[in-house]
Amino acid sequence: MSNNTWICVNNNGHAYDTITAEQNSYFCPKCPYGEGILLNQGPVSIDNEGTIIPPMTQQQEDLGLCIMLLDCSGSMAEPAFMNHPMSKRDLIAKSVSAGIFSLSGNPLKEFAYVLIIGFDHEIEILVPYMSIEKLVQEYRDAAGLEHALKEKMYKKNGATDINGALEVAFRFTQQFINSEISILGTYKPRIQAVLDDNMMNHSIPNVRVLLFTDGGQFMGPDKTTLNPSPFRNLQYDGKVFDLLMSAYYGSSSDKDYDKLKSLASKCPRHPSTDQFFLFDDPTKVANLKGLFRMASGASGFCPTCLDEANTVTRDF
Q: Can you give the CATH number for the domain in which 199 is found?
């Protein structure tokens, strides 16, 4: 017999139907919460004893991955700008969708994967791991994806667990880079050759993680400590690479601004620039779509990279 099956990245024996996967926010209920992300394996065969027969998988080279961590706490329901009807979460849902769908014509979209995670005091997968090609097929247009994101984001309205969201993303990123996710078959992440401003060459996995928030860690009055970023320990081929980009929607005078900025490392292409984006003025909002496009396409790291990408886009 065949079923549409979701399998845990940590244990191929942990398999669930779509209803169970959705009820558990695409996390394995048999693993500690957040540690076993479920991936859709489509129809798989099951023998007479109920044992899953692993699907035949092709060898895949040059895979790219973007993980988006979207703040869905109560403050994200506030207006994006003064005297403006659109909320911050509506603005983010629209910008994420437009950014991803702007890559729908990319000839490598079948090898570019996204995973969108929402967080308040709980972590939830808003869009499970899938290729941009499949995402475009499933949601049809940017408006379809925007609607799906808003529907799930509206259900979250709690506190802010940035620490938990980063840990979930870090575990999956390290597994992906190490080619440890066996249910993906034989695969390797794409490796980019990045030449920095000092003419030094770096080989970096084609993976990006983008954190977008409008505040700091808050799980209660006595639980406001923002932990150091786990991505400072992300390793590939014996070297440490910090692939986390942080975006803050607020003011540089906010009490949490410096804490959020402390998560950012320097850009490998522009070593003097932080992988940190500040959205403190309505005129900068036009860059949101570009930021999410850049993250989804794993084509840059910092505000200078984004400016360069925008220049190229305008030139054509």
A: 3.40.50.410
Q: How far apart are CA 211 and CA 162, in angstroms?
A: 9
Residues 6 and 65 placed together within one structural domain of the fold: no
Q: How confident is the model at residue 41 (pLDDT cuts 50, 70, 90)?
A: confident
Q: Calculate the dihedral angle through the C-alpha atoms of 178, 180, 184, 187, rounding to the nearest 10 degrees.
A: 40
Residue 314's pLDDT is 42
| Residue 121 and residue 36 share a domain | no
Residues 79 and 7 in one domain: no
CA dihedral 258, 264, 267, 273 (to 10 degrees): 0
Is 60 exceeded by the pLDDT of residue 51? Answer: no
Report the predicted TM-score, pTM, of the whole model to 2 decimal places: 0.92
Element spanning 228, H or E: none
E-strand stretches of the chain = 2-8, 15-16, 38-46, 52-53, 60-71, 112-119, 123-131, 187-189, 191-195, 201-205, 207-213, 235-236, 239-240, 244-249, 276-279
The pairing of beta strand 244-249 with beta strand 191-195: unpaired
Please state the domain count of the chain.
Answer: 2
Helix (H) or strand (E) holding 168: helix 162-177
How far, rounded to the nearest angstrom, does the alpha carbon of residue 101 sit from its chain's CA centroid?
15
CA dihedral 194, 199, 200, 203 (to 10 degrees): 10
